[in-house]
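[job 4471] stage=fold_predict status=RUNNING
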Amino acid sequence: MRAVLLPVALAVATLAAWQAFVVIGNIPPVILPSPVSTLRYIVEHWDILLTHAVPTTLESAIGFVLATLLGVLLAIVITYSTLAREALYPNLVFFQLIPKIALAPLFIIWLGIGMQSRVAFAVFIAFFPVVIATSAGFASVDRGMLRLCRSLTASEWQVFTHVRFPAALPHIFSGMKVAITLAIIGVIIGEFITAQAGLGYLIIFATARADTEVSMAAIVVLCVCGLLLYGLVALGEIAANRIFSADPA
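[job 4471] inference complete, writing structure tokens
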């Protein structure tokens, strides 16, 4: 209960302080709308917000899944091939150091203004944490367990499925939790640049009209969508741990 009550109490206290600051300071809504007015807008215009939330959430989920698959695949290649590790790892770090937002317009030029450019950009900025975390997970396997498997003439596939992969699951899901947030950021950046729908488009459109209340409402809905996606990843971690902990091998 403490793990739930403490963050909820802090969030309520923050919202109460925000509301009091706006009311007592007589802050104009164009500068900072109050939580009450933002919530009222969400309730009254939930259909518009939902219409824009669907493409953002869908594109973020697709980008996250592709980034996870790509990251795990690259981690497997790096783990099992010294040559691939020496060739790929420095370049992955190099590309990670490039400011991602500077490359967003190039994705629009290369892939167009449709969903594919936003998904590709989300994959580009989200796969790196999965690679690093998964590689660390594969490398953290107990060497004694690996020697035992080889002494029992276990195949490389059996070692991977029953030893390496289950042992790396905590690391993999740690990388996935970071990746889901980066995937959402990637999609939002793409929607800022070119989109006709989505929460990022709604935020930039409302900001251009100085309609801060709409922007704040869209940000709140975006946070809720992000929490839902993050929660799905957390539930997937619990399910995966139960499945592999029940593996008789």
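[job 4471] summary: The chain has one domain: 44-245.
[job 4471] exit 0
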